[in-house]
């Protein structure tokens, strides 16, 4: 926020090279950080990940075949679907495999015909379990490259940190995708990266250069506020302080004991409430089905639904949840600097003096 304010309140060198005094690139700072953090040859930032995928397909595969597993034809929030994005780009969708199983031989058979790209779309908002099979990303890249076809990996949430460190299931990282040999990887600047809404394309310099030259790149480019916020976020990763400074990772890294102590403090301040064990859901189109143990403040109120409605009317609005007719508040979802506003809102609704 401080980075956005600094850029928004005054002049900036967004597309001005201070060294030469001539026009420069708006992406110079973010691109350098992304390349340093991931080892990618080149980078491009646009306004969201759907735009990143649309732009890449439009630039590299218009009116040509793009292979994707049927199980990866996902729908994201708001009803937007991968097949629709592909259609808009002009690419010709080629499905391989079935809903629950796709084999390497399915890719090899489809690659026997002239093909522009292979697209792997990570299922970042749902899971398929049971009788399933899917080749490893590295295997897909090997057979694709053997046929002379580039691979794009749409990671969706796009983490730079290993989620297993925090007691969560494995979420593919950007670095892992590049190490598997993909030619391009697309992911979001918000979600697990923890920055502003943005779409990021990393990978082969020649492909990124071609994408940058496409007319659509101008229509979906990121503005100065987005780039300032993204650059500030990436600097936290560079300084190895993401867990301390980036809100999503601060929340994920919080221990149950820390959350219990905070919930007890809330109960003491409010003069009511019970501390109960529970779970935090990461959500936000990331880590489907993954929860973290936590402790919650449980409030017994006469009408939970009306209580929730009154909480939403506070400034700032308070979003809680109910379970077994109890209102639950999770300290993991509230940053320490937000506690004061939370307690004022709760006291207003409970009829306590603030």
Description:
The protein has helices at 2-9, 28-38, 49-61, 82-89, 104-110, 137-146, 174-179, 205-213, 215-219, 224-238, 242-245, 247-253, 256-270, 304-312, 339-350, and strands spanning 16-17, 22-23, 42-46, 65-69, 92-96, 117-121, 151-156, 184-188, 199-203, 274-281, 291-300, 321-323, 326-329. The protein is α/β, with parallel strands linked by helices. The chain folds into 2 domains: 2-246, Type I PLP-dependent aspartate aminotransferase-like (Major domain) (Aspartate Aminotransferase, domain 2, 3-Layer(aba) Sandwich), CATH 3.40.640; 254-350, Alpha-Beta Complex (Aspartate Aminotransferase, domain 1), CATH 3.90.1150. It has a 7-stranded mixed beta sheet, sandwiched between helices. A 4-stranded antiparallel beta sheet has the order 10-11-13-12. Strand 1 (16-17) and strand 2 (22-23) form a beta hairpin. The longest helix is centred in the middle third of the chain and has 15 residues, at 224-238. It is elongated and about 70 Å long. The two termini are 28 Å apart. The mean pLDDT is 91.
Number of structurally distinct domains: 2
CATH topology tier name of the largest domain: Aspartate Aminotransferase, domain 2
Note the beta-strand portion.
15-25%
The radius of gyration is 23 Å
Helicity level, as a percent range? 25-40%
Name the CATH homologous superfamily of the largest domain.
Answer: Type I PLP-dependent aspartate aminotransferase-like (Major domain)
Low-confidence regions: none
**Per the principal axes of the C-alpha atoms, what is the gross shape?**
elongated
- Record the strand order, biggest sheet: 3-9-8-7-6-4-5
Q: Give the termini distance in whole angstroms.
A: 28 Å
Mean of the pLDDT scores?
91
**SS-based class:** alpha/beta
The main pleated sheet reads as: 7 strands, mixed
In DSSP terms (H or I, runs of 4 or more residues), the helix count works out at: 15
CATH architectural group of the largest domain: 3-Layer(aba) Sandwich
CATH level 1 name of the largest domain: Alpha Beta
Order of helices and strands: HEEHEHEHEHEHEHEEHHHHHHEEHEEH
Beta strand count: 13
């Amino acid at each position: 926020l401080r980075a956005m304010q600094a850029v928004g309140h005054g002049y900036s060198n967004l597309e001005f090279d201070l060294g030469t005094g001539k026009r420069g690139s708006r992406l110079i700072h973010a691109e350098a950080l992304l390349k340093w953090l991931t080892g990618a040859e080149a980078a491009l930032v646009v306004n969201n990940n759907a735009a990143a995928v649309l732009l890449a397909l439009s630039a590299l595969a218009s009116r040509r075949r793009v292979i994707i597993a049927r199980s990866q034809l996902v729908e994201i929030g708001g009803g937007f679907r991968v097949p629709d994005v592909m259609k808009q780009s002009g690419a010709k969708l080629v499905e391989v495999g079935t809903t629950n199983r796709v084999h390497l031989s399915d890719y090899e058979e489809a690659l026997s015909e002239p093909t522009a790209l292979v697209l792997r779309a990570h299922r970042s908002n749902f899971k398929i379990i049971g009788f399933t099979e899917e080749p490893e990303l590295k295997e897909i890249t090997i057979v694709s490259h053997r046929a002379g076809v580039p691979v794009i990996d749409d990671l969706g949430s796009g983490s730079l940190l290993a989620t297993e460190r925090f007691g969560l299931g494995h979420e593919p990282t950007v670095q892992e995708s590049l190490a598997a040999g993909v030619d391009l990887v697309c992911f979001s600047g918000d979600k697990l990266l923890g920055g502003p809404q943005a779409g990021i394309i990393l990978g082969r310099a020649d492909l990124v250069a071609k994408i940058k030259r496409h007319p659509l790149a101008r229509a979906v480019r990121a503005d100065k506020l987005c780039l300032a916020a993204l650059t500030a976020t990436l600097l936290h990763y560079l300084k190895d302080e993401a867990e301390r400074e980036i809100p999503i990772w601060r929340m994920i890294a919080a221990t149950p004991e820390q959350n219990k102590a905070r919930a007890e403090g809330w109960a003491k301040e409010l003069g009511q409430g019970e501390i109960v064990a529970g779970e935090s859901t990461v959500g936000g189109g990331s880590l489907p089905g993954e929860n973290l143990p936590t402790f919650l403040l449980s409030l017994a109120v006469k009408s939970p639904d009306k209580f929730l409605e009154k909480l939403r009317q506070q400034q700032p609005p308070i979003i809680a949840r109910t379970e077994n007719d109890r209102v639950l508040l999770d300290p993991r979802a509230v940053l320490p600097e937000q506690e004061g506003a939370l307690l004022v809102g709760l006291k207003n609704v409970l009829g306590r003096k603030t």
